[in-house]
Amino acid sequence: MKLRLINQNTEKSIRRKRSTKLCSEFSPTVVNDRVYRSDKENGSVWEGKEAVLTFIFMAVEYMEHDLKEIIKTMKQPFSPSEIKCLMLQLLEGVKNLHDNSVLHRYLKTSNLLLNSRGELKILHSGLARKHHGNLLYSAPELLLGAKHYSTAMDMWSVGCIMAELLSNEPLFNGSGTSAEQIYHICRILGTPNETTWPGFSKLTGVGLKVVNFAKQYQEKLLRKKFPATSFTGLPFLSDAGFDLLNRLLTYDPEKRITADAALDHDWFREVPLPKSKEFMPDFHALNAQTDRRKRRVMKRLNPDIEETSSTNSSTDAQIYP
After folding, report:
1. Which is the most buried residue in 28, 104, 173, 238, by most CB within 10 A?
2. What DSSP letter does each residue of 185-207 carry, written as one string?
3. Which residues neighbour 195 within 8 Å (Cβ) at sequence distance 6 or greater?
4. Using CA atoms in the order 156, 160, 161, 162, what is the torsion angle rounded to 10 degrees?
5. CA distance 219 to 225
6. Residue 242: exposure state from Cβ atoms within 10 A (0-12, 13-18, ≥19)
7. Pairing mode, if any, of strands 120-122 and 112-114?
8. Which helix (H) or strand (E) covers residue 315, if one does?
9. Highest mean pLDDT: which range of 71-85, 228-242, 261-275, 305-319
10. Left if phi > 0, otherwise alpha if psi is -120 to 50, otherwise beta: which for 295?
């Protein structure tokens, strides 16, 4: 894949160079790449040498699908054992990032890739410095204007992804504004206060007005959305599984569970056990139509992306959405 760096000092170019450097440092649950750089004047290509860059060539490992695309096509959610397999891999990748003092800041189902061997990989997507481009996975402290944040923001996104795997739809499905997103969070988790989230009242984000309006939501509806048993078609979740989800979606960032602690959670040790990667479902039928659609969409939306190989187009289309 060929990426054009039009202006070396733009935030977009800086973000791309930062992302390609960091991506190469993590494995195995973060997409690996090899970066080649090109000189505009003579077209020569060399590796690892400092120079004024006009293009970056990325050779990335082949991953057939993104998780969002798979979820959209599934008539039924993944089974509990399959969700555990995916969650373990996601948490291992997030732990790898956090152990190396890196915040992802952009975790969402479309940034998680899955291949035919049942392996899940995380895309960096530029490691955006501001809050998530997709508010559906944004932590409440970001939506409410917190100036300082930690690895806990990624863990909230992991909780949103877990809920989406269980139900095949986003848990907090707002309309695209911070205020609307906060409203949906309060409606399901109840309205935060100084008891549940010390320091909450000092936040000054625009969503704070919505929180004051949403004080009527004192009851937490999360368990009703994921009951222990279900005869009505609702996704069900064991007590241990709900404990993990609840700790991922804790308002107070200081009390939110870490990736390390989540990997050691009892939910992964209870029956049904996590499915082995090699026994995960295969989605080969999606390959052709997904590749064609993504090539058309990405060519229209991002002219900076130029494919140099058609064999890895499903991954190329997502490296820098």
Report:
1. 104
2. HHHHH----TTTSTTGGG---TH
3. none
4. 100
5. 13
6. middle
7. antiparallel
8. helix 313-316
9. 261-275
10. alpha
